[in-house]
Amino acid sequence: MTALVTESASGRRRAAVALVALGPERAAVILRGLPERDVKALAAEVAALGPVSPDEVRSTMSELVRGLGDVGVLPAPGKRFAKDLLVRALGPERGAAAGVELDVPIPFAWLADADPDAAAQGLATEPAGAVALALAHLDPKVAARLLVRLPQESQGKVATRIAALGSVHPDTVRQVEAGLRLRISDVLRSEVRKVDGPELLAGLLSKAGRDTSRELLQAVAAASPELAEATRNALFTFDDVCALDARSMQVMLRSVDSKQLAVALSSSSQTVKDKVLGNLSERARESLTEEMDLLRGVRPTEVTEARNGLVAIARQLEEEGSLVLSRNGDDE
User: For residue 225, what is the domain's CATH number?
Assistant: First the structure.
């Protein structure tokens, strides 16, 4: 247990989870054999624990958990549990004195409770050193979620400052925390609106004329081929393909593999299937029906891939002028 306490933050967390899973009486027996410094460190870790998943309990308890049977979610133990551990392990006076330290707020804990997108937006304009100090006080998983949401150009700077951190005076921590909280509190209180850029642009293009839409997509592609492709995927969907008129549907179906078509239609409504079958020759209709009857256990990812393939074919045929994908707002 001592090795876990001293090796790393993740080691202290595993030790804390084990103590909570064992319960206060057994945990106190273990703590009595540890140095007081380690007892206090573990108590602080226990007090900061949130709910612990069954998987983490099992992995933490290792061989011991095999005899526990089914494990449920471990409730957040809180300060009361931690203070009880201290009293049991250190005695009434020393335990009570150590418990007072648990009432001191954990630095930057409010960041862990905030929406990660809002928190990252607020931290994005802060100095790398201040952000590094804040992330260093958070659970590694929480800190990682915030770090990856920072602007790309800031992530490396913050990571470097974290690696360079040494001893920091508590007064400095308090000053940095107070400044951060004051400056980004408005952002944290605001609701961050999540926007899908390609989908938003696709909605705009669907209301524009065909020539305008094509020119704008070419401009986007010149700047970012990935964004242009994502916009095309949002602009023309499988539903658009299913809504083709009879002539355009027949043109597209001549370019599609029957196996791919069968997979794409596997989870479609009977109305869509009937429309597709109605635009095939008798021989092709029988072949497709047989393909669909033979399908078993098609994964959703396979259906999505097949449908994306059909959309790509339809887009290519439209670019060649072989068919028309109807959209609201097209030029007459």
Answer: 1.20.5
